[in-house]
Specification:
With 165 residues, the protein is mainly alpha-helical. Helices cover 44% and strands 5% of the residues.
Length: 165
Amino acid sequence: LSKGDVISQEMVSTMATDPIIFACANPDPEILPDVAKDVRPDVIIGTGRSDYPNQVNNVLGFPNIFRGALDVRASHITENMKMAAAKALAGLAREDVPSYVKSAHSREDKSFGSEYIIPSPFDKRVMEYVAPAVAQAAVDDGVARVRSFIKERYVEHIKAISEKI
């Protein structure tokens, strides 16, 4: 548990080069991004708020982790499945950002960097990246209960679903 305004500029000023802060208390983060950047322009900061860059939002994980797990009838969620989801999100963050995502944030300059290390919850491709990665990890870990899993077919199935969203 946390609360807003518990990280001071003095604390931020003592951090190593290119510090990363996840200030996820809502509605007020532990430190506001502009306050942190005033003393450390090199800071990479994520908050739980959509009105700041790098929104840390569980909507990026849970629906898609469960989608992949349920589609292969996984008996449980493994650490490898969670890591596969995280790596899929990291990979997506490095891809070109579609115009519909940029316009949803009213920022045309969205691309991978200190202001965009986490994909947007508005990016329909999140499901296309995360669910197949999780499903494959479940198969690899031996917790999937489907008889046959062909990742390429599953990816096409997920893409067809996400196009309808």
